[in-house]
Amino acid sequence: MESFVNLLLALLAYQNFYSIMLVVPVAICFLQRDVLGLVKYLNPTAVKSILLTLSLTSLARFSPLLLLHPDSVVGFIRSTYGFVIMVPELTPNMGIFWYFFTEVFQHFELFFIIVFQVNAFIYTIPLAIKLRNHSVFLLYTLIVLISIFKSYPTYADVGFYLSFIPCWSFTHKYMKNVFIVSNMYIWCAALSPVFYHLWIYAGSANANFYFALTLVFNGAQIFFISDLILAYLRRDFDLHHLCQLLTLIKLNSPPHRKLMMSYLVSTSC
């Protein structure tokens, strides 16, 4: 089972460079299955699980390169992964790379490429620490972050993670920005083709209009995942500390008991 999952992850990482960060939640999932408890990264089993997943994924990912001629490997990497990392094509899209690297000075370009690419991966570390006992939610969070910070994002990436929102329906009552984020998504989807047409075809607008819309769109995605993470952690906090609340509140009278039972039902659903 682990080999098959690692093979699928390797194929995904082979097609999408940023998907290599999904090795972390997959390794945590394997670890939770083995230890049947809370995840501790200093545990030898945790280290073994992460290294095994990483090694199998890397082997399955780079093994097709062995079929190429040695002189062709460098050209292949430069034309695929190098293209994604160095961002030579600056065609307007819904990402944050194209406008910035159109305006940046050339001698600063390499520095900001490193900053932008590190920014896409750096969130894996704190999220893996905070959500180490919630591997599936960590996987979903990283998928959302990949669609935000990758160099060439598409609407398909957004539609993919939005289709899994019903999986987290139990967090909706804890989310606070649903109305604002929903309207931001709708308005960006409606106005992006209009602004693109006015800029590229009609010539009555400039790049600032379209780039402002991409900032709003990416801001909506950041607000969405931030609100979802806070809602998930708030619900997890309520469920884990509910026993402490029961000991602090005196349930001597029926009204208090009825109120607490309704709270239990509302938080557990």
Automatic annotation (TrEMBL):
Q: Tell me the compartments it is located in.
A: Endoplasmic reticulum membrane
Q: Give the pathway listed in the UniProt entry for this protein.
A: Glycolipid biosynthesis; glycosylphosphatidylinositol-anchor biosynthesis
Give the GO terms filed under biological process for this record. Answer: attachment of GPI anchor to protein; GPI anchor biosynthetic process
Q: Which InterPro entries match?
A: PIG-U (IPR009600)
**Which Pfam families does this entry report, sorted A to Z?**
PIG-U
Per the record, GO CC terms? Answer: GPI-anchor transamidase complex
Transmembrane stretches, start-end: 7-30, 50-68, 80-101, 107-129, 136-152, 184-203, 209-233
Main location per UniProt?
A: endoplasmic reticulum
Regarding the membrane, this protein is recorded as: Multi-pass membrane protein
What UniProt keywords apply to this chain's record, in alphabetical order?
Answer: Endoplasmic reticulum, GPI-anchor biosynthesis, Membrane, Transmembrane, Transmembrane helix
Similarity annotation: Belongs to the PIGU family.
What is the name of the protein in this document? Answer: PIGU
